[in-house]
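Supplementary Data S3. Sequence and structure tokens for construct A.
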Amino acid sequence: MLTVRDLTLHYGASQILYGVSLEARPGAVTAVMGTNGVGKTSLLRAIAGRHPYSGGTITLDGAVLDHLSAAAAARAGIAYVPQGREIFPLLTVTENLQTGFACLPRSERRIPERIYELFPVLRDMKDRRGGDLSGGQQQQLAIARALIARPRVLLLDEPTEGIQPNIIKQIGRVIALLREEGEIAIILVEQYFDFAYGLADSFCVLNRGEVVLSRPAAEVTRAEILERVSI
């Protein structure tokens, strides 16, 4: 269980997050939603150790991850797939995947066959450079690279952005499979409402850096979520 409590975050003198709280449990998708600029990416960056937060706590299975760095977050089991993917364009697909080895003991530094079962296109293109892949293929590579580290928490920032519909479906199937396996807590930031709504077990809607709705999916309607997102 990942728990975020009363998180605040600043960029210089500007406050971006105001006391944000959420929970993410294994075998469930927590969808973080809201319009552009409300703090969704900042929240993920704080959890991933990409940006220091000003106050509040982040705990994983009861252990406080206090102002963790990106390296410490990765070692703790938090994997981040950022908006824009951030794959290495001059490295091959295989080499990009191997960058996920950093948090693993040497005896476990191998690419599991399961990665290619989840994303068959990566097997076909394993010797191709990352920069030569399509946007959808790069997104699959970015998610696969995150899974190489065997995370306990997977953070996905806008995984459908600029992606063709057939690959969106593929990514949705992978997220659903990971949820069903019950080992990873997934936090999904997504603007594509139907995609998020079809996968989410709970919703956290942000507006101007504050939580305006936080409820299990079974207890909230599409209309309520859309109303809060559009405030």
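Construct B, processed identically:
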Amino acid sequence: MYKILTIVFLLIAFVSNGQKMAKYDSTLKIGKAGYKVACMNRSPERNVLNVRPIGFKSDAREVNLELKGRVLAAEIDDLNQDGFPDIIIYVLDPSGKTTLFSISSKDNESLQPIYFPDITNDMQLSKGYRGQDDFKLVEGILFRKFPIYDADTAIKVPTKKVRQIMYRVVTGERGILNFKMFKNFDLAVD
């Protein structure tokens, strides 16, 4: 009996490890306007993300794009303080890092992307960075937190510190929306 239970347990564990990530399908709204976000999450290498505007004017078209990764979650808020809903979609890429895909409503008539900076392009912020990001959207401000590692790449355990970065959406050249870091600090953790 013990051998049978052990075999059944191992079989369940093996099948669970090979399972695909669950399909992501969610509707997020502020008032009557928002977005329906769907992704099959079949493969870590290739998926199609569908974002359909809800409560927008009829010329607002849905967005379908191919992702390298799987959708983890989405959050809605008025990121650029224009009175219209914007969305952030969190994507787990094949390397295990979380990336963002963000869309802004332009007067509930059309959609435009919000660009998120690559942390590896900032020498100061990326010092000790190895992923494991945790993102949270609070009243239009995006918080990013991750463990800090020593510079020696052979060390596999993070230090007892995390870096917190806060971003706001700003309008750049030619009306392009970008997340811009406005505050960062390192915190000690237990």
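Residues 20-188 form one domain. Residues 1-19 have pLDDT under 50 and may be disordered.
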